[in-house]
Amino acid sequence: MTAENMKKDIPELGAIVQRDRETYAIAPHLPGGITNTATLRKLVDIGEKYGCKLVKVTSAQRIALVGLKEEDLENIWTELEIDKGSAIGFCVRSVKICPGIDFCKRAKQDSVGVGLAIDKKYHGMPLPNKFKIGVSGCPNSCAESAVKDIGIIGAAKGFKILVGGNAGGQPRIAETIYEDKTADEALKIVDDIITLYEKAASKGQRLSKFIDKIGVENLVRYIDAPVGDKERILVEIKE
Ligand code: SF4
């Protein structure tokens, strides 16, 4: 197979070409990895119908159907009736969420409630680079919050907010910028971080690099500023 006729990812079909450069994987969006038996049954039935070779639970808490043919992809999505989501590209990826207070005896805060609210609002939003968020209900941090662009961790008195982590080629532990925040406060902080990053970071700049450039104190200054002052601070940061 020549480089020209090698198959590529098909983002509009949520399809990721496999190592054989012939077949595709899709990973329907299951927010927080939470689903039910009817959806699982549908995934199994449709996977079987279209000759899916393997099922893989991904690190982003999605369930990938692997080894599908390109010509079947549109029909598969039509029959699945599940959001394709955004598994690749420069955007907000699936928010990783631990089981939280409804299920886990160790939980201190409602990670599922906060995580699903963030996923609903931001999943798939285009940003200067990929953007990962992890929400954990207690300091055990089962959603790996310390290696996400934004990490949220429940503690006895509220949520801790961390920024600038990643787990790639240059792993980096996120820096804590707030503690003891309510769920609403945590959501507002996430809004501000994403807004500033979207408007002021350059293309390809991961949040950690953006923070290195502007200084974490300026990120916090923007978040803490009254609404009326944010635009002015944004302009200053961009200069
Ligand atoms: S982070 Fe804490 S609350 Fe969440 S699953 Fe792990 S132990 Fe349970």
Quaternary structure annotation: single chain
- What's the helical proportion of residues? 25-40%
CATH class of the largest domain: Alpha Beta
**Euclidean distance between termini CA atoms:** 49 Å
CATH superfamily of the largest domain: Sulfite Reductase Hemoprotein, domain 1
* Ligand list: iron/sulfur cluster
Please list the strands of the largest sheet in the order they lie side by side: 5-6-7-8-9
SSE series? EEHEEHEHEEEEHHHH
Count of discrete alpha- or pi-helical segments spanning 4 or more residues = 7
Computed Rg? 19 Å
Task: Please name the defining characteristics of this protein.
239 residues, alpha+beta, Alpha-Beta Plaits, Sulfite Reductase Hemoprotein, domain 1, 2 domains, five-stranded mixed β-sheet, four-stranded antiparallel β-sheet, binds iron/sulfur cluster
Describe it.
With 239 residues, this protein is of the alpha+beta class. It has 2 domains: 11-80, Alpha-Beta Plaits; 96-238, Sulfite Reductase Hemoprotein, domain 1 (2-Layer Sandwich). The chain contains 7 helices and 9 strands; from the N terminus they run ββαββαβαββββαααα. The chain has helices at residues 37-49, 73-80, 111-122, 183-200, 207-214, 216-224, 227-238, and strands at residues 15-17, 24-26, 54-57, 63-68, 96-97, 133-136, 150-155, 158-163, 175-181. The strands form 2 sheets. A 5-stranded mixed sheet has the order 5-6-7-8-9, with helices on one face. Strand 7 and strand 8 (158-163) form a beta hairpin. The mean pLDDT is 95.
